[in-house]
Amino acid sequence: MYRVIKDYFRLFLYNTFIFLFLITPKFIMEKFLRFLAFLAYKLNKKHLKVARANLDLVYKDSISKDRKEEIIYNSYKSLVFNMYEFIENQTISKEELLSKANILNKEIIEKAFQDNRKIIYMTAHYGGWEITLPYIALMFGDIAVVNRRMDNPHIQKKYEIARSKNRITMLEKETAAKGMLKAFKENKSVAIVIDQHIGSGIEVEFLAQKAYATDSTSRLALKFGAIIIPIFTVNNGFRDWTIKVCEPIDVKTFDFKTDDKVKELTQIQNDIVSKQIFDKPDFWLWQHKRFKKFHKNIYKK
């Protein structure tokens, strides 16, 4: 009974929070979100420590301490703007959602559809991932995406309904493999975020550091002859994004250098994510323990 009451109370808080966000004038909301990012940067000591450890590991002394702090603050700002997208995109029209972003190289996706290819969108916790997939789904067609189920079943249900409105199907991690196979059979595209820490997987270099990475994208692409299309979204300001579609990896024509195609393909994807982060590090989620499998000690300092 206590669990039920707690779930409904959290649902009430969630609905109240969303209502207040949506009725607040946009110019006030932008200032509030910037303040929220500043507050998180100043007060969120636990994750601030993780971000600093990651930046020290990756960059060492190649950039200044001030630049590292700037990256962390900008990462928080990008994160809160991204979370606002999660809230607002549940309620607005297709036209309004599409108006908040411009897309570069969309002809890559158009050609994949013209060639009747199965598509895997490969992305990361980078910039505006909460606008990336709704935008791509509304513009090009349904997407199935792997996501962790929320603890509160009522909020999970609202989340699923909001996602389906934007032509996104949620797949639970525990049954993701079957879900992705089913998605391809239903002529949906699949989206996978590959930059999170996992306890096991394929050892790769990520941001020039040893880490484990998921090989699910590689195995799926090889099994179905799918084309992997990397996508990253950078923030230009409040409700203003640029979605960049990168050169695809076509497993049908790719010149593999080794016999272990799964490992090679997994490394290539992590190289693509790493390059994007090195090019514009301010938009990546530095606040998670990406390297704890091989560099556990950096998070204990």
From TrEMBL:
The keyword Transferase is assigned to this record: yes
Membrane spanning stretches: 12-29
GO CC terms, sorted: plasma membrane
Highest taxon listed in the record's lineage: Bacteria
Signal peptide: none
GO biological process: glycolipid biosynthetic process
GO molecular function list: acyltransferase activity
InterPro entries xrefs: LipA_acyltrans
The keyword Acyltransferase is annotated on this UniProt entry: yes
Keywords attached to this entry: Acyltransferase, Cell inner membrane, Cell membrane, Membrane, Transferase, Transmembrane, Transmembrane helix
Compartments where located: Cell inner membrane
Protein name as catalogued: Lipid A biosynthesis lauroyl acyltransferase
Organism of provenance: Aliarcobacter cibarius
Species classification: Bacteria, Pseudomonadati, Campylobacterota, Epsilonproteobacteria, Campylobacterales
